[in-house]
Structures are given as structure tokens and as C-alpha cells.
Amino acid sequence: MRVVLDTWVFLDPSKPSKALLDRVRRTAPEAVVSAITYAELCSLLYRRVSDEDVKRFTRNLERLGLRTVSVTKEIAEEGGRYKAKYGFSIADGIIVATAVAEHADLLVTGDPDFNKVEEIKAATPEKTLKELRARS
Q: Do residues 32 and 6 touch, judged by C-beta distance below 8 A?
């Protein structure tokens, strides 16, 4: 199972998000993030914590074994289309475009705006964990 993780998952302090990230670190699913997710996370962190804390956070992200997808011209174009179609931020449009381009089974997020996307199935961390349990 391949999932794309929205920035929201990394910012959510709930048990399901933490459990999903732990499962990603240990075994399955194949987890993918857009490079724009790193940009969003760093932007938020640089406003709130020291540079050293940001480096520590990014090292911890690397330990998860996530595959990072660069923003190609094609993903950028599709991201712009999704921004126009759904009224997203450009970052969210690019995250949707990444999920579609990567043929992800799920886009994992807690942001209800993604529920209106027709091109990819969005699921909360809790629902994703349930689906993973059902598949194992």
C-alpha cells in the first residue's frame, strides 16, 4: 500500500498520527511526501524554534524512511490545476498532484478540504491505520 502524507500528519499530536508515523518507520506502508511538505514544515518551524531544532526535526523525519518526491514541471502544472479546481493553497494542490502522480492508494490528512478531491482518496490517520490492519 502506498500513501502520501500531507503536512497535517506531521503537525497533529494525536495518537493515530503518531501511531501511523511509527508504523511507517517500522514496516508498512510505503510512505511518500512531496518536497513541498518539507518546505511547509520548515517554514512553520523556522518561525517558532531554533535552527538547531529544525535540523533535529528534519533528521527525525529522515529516520522515518519516507520517499520524497520533487516538484517536477508536470506536478507543478497539475498542482496549479487542483488549486484552481478546488480552491486549495498551491502547496495543497501540489500535494494532491503528487499523490495522483505516485498512484497512491491514500492521501493521509486530517484536513477536511481534501475530502472533496475526486482524483485521490483522502483518509485520516485513524482510517488509514484501520485499512492497514485489514490488509495485513
A: no
- Domain ranges for the chain, please list them: 2-135
Q: Decide: helix, strand or coil at residue 80.
A: helix
State whether residue 12 is helix, strand or coil.
Answer: coil
The CA angle 55-44-118, to the nearest 5 degrees, is 115
Q: What is the pLDDT of residues 58-100, one digit of tens each?
A: 888 888 889 999 999 999 999 999 999 999 999 999 999 999 9
Residue 35's contacts (CB-CB under 8 Å, 6 or more residues apart) are 68, 69, 70, 71
Instruction: Tally the residues of the chain.
Output: 136
Tell me the C-alpha distance between 97 and 31, whole Å: 15
Would you say 101 and 75 are in contact if contact means Cβ atoms under 8 Å apart? Answer: yes
Backbone torsions φ then ψ of 102, nearest 5 degrees: -85, 0
CATH topology of domain 2-135: Rossmann fold (3.40.50)
Q: Which three cell numbers stand for residue 96?
A: 494532491
Q: Which amino acid is at 86?
A: Y
